[in-house]
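Worked Example 4.2. Consider the chain below.
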Amino acid sequence: MTYGCPVRLFVCAAVVVTLFAVPASASADSFTTLAGYDAPGPARYDRVGVLKQGPASARRVLLLAPGTSAGAAYFRLVAADILARLPGWQVWSVERRENLLEDHSMADRYKRGEVSGESFFDYYLGWLAKAGVAPHFEPLVAGFAREWGMRVAVEDLRRVVRSARRGGRTVVLGGHSLGATLSVAYATWDFAGRAGGDDLDGLVLIDGGSSSRAVPSPAQARRELATLLGSGPFLDLAGTGFAWSGGVFNLVGSTLAVREPTAPALLGTFPFLPPALRPPVPATNRGGYGYAFDAETSPSGLALIHQHLGSLAPAGDPRDWVNGELGTVERAAEAFSGPVGRDGSAWYHPRRLSLDASVTNGGVRTPAQQVLGVRTTHGRDLDLAIYAFETSLGKGRVLRSARQLARRSGIRRVTLVDRSTTYAHVDPLTADPASNAFVSTVVPFLRRAR
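Applying the procedure from the previous section yields the following structure tokens:
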């Protein structure tokens, strides 16, 4: 069973590094691209990105993998919060190869103040409802991504882990949602008889992981694989019929909320916005974004994006947003809008990755793994510390699977944090740092890393 998946040769030479401005609350960032695994598709996509925060001289690295339909930038604020309490550490956030399929050209111009919000909106979404908008975003067809499954993600991640370990540095691998499943998969993966966990000093599982229950049978795995091979390669998270729409809605909504928070919501009058995401009254960009993401008003089918942010203001035209819970709409929007060059979403999430994740099985061999080419078989061979944090989405599974993994390998260094009654799925990444239970509990865990 995986969490956050209902519906994003060793060569480590950097080929590009980009510096970009960040808000005062975040540490200085750099983005590095490493050569990746030789996977199906054009060679230009055989790359994996790393968003690095913290001093390059650090001897300890927390490496974070994003969840379903997510990108490295959504770790950016919580990484800065952790680093403020952990001198001598860096945080590396992984940008999987599917993010290379995105078009950030107009978003970058808007973030730099070179074009209007309306021009930005029209480029990505307005053209669908307006005649004569040119140029505009052109969605990609990438059938080769049907084969971008767990092996591709694990092999890409291996390049990042080995780069992080250079010079004998301590490396703790973690992830959020599907990224936590990927972390367990990496730790238990069989690399020519050797467990991936041999390169790690700990695991940080943020509302995700992998248990040994409800694993597909070989026949089920074959049926799922056949269905995938005969349909589109990407997950349609928003349910619009356009796989890219969830990521683009998030980029547009979050960036408008950051740059023009009190202006009337451009998405509010967009005819193709799913009705469940539309506020019942005219709202500001900030109000509309908060309404779509808050756990009280966002549809239950989008629990992957839920946060406790506050509520629409009781009055006003357009209606603004009132903060007052674990996080703020400003932090949520900043996390997903991201800096120039990237955002916190993955517009094209490979369905094969989520399918393969379903047979991770806590590192225990299962016949369905052979069908899908998944090699997570070292669940009894780990020697590392484990941290797990559970929110309302986990329903007991996250902590249970962490206990199972620890018991299987005889691990005693285990930290389990249950916030299933108070935290939604994305709250650990966007809650106010002064009261964020994830930050306050993961920092002591990391301090004990060898």
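The chain has two domains: 14-102+141-234+348-447, 105-137+236-337. The CA atoms of residues 37 and 155 lie 6 Å apart. Compare this with Example 4.1 before moving on.
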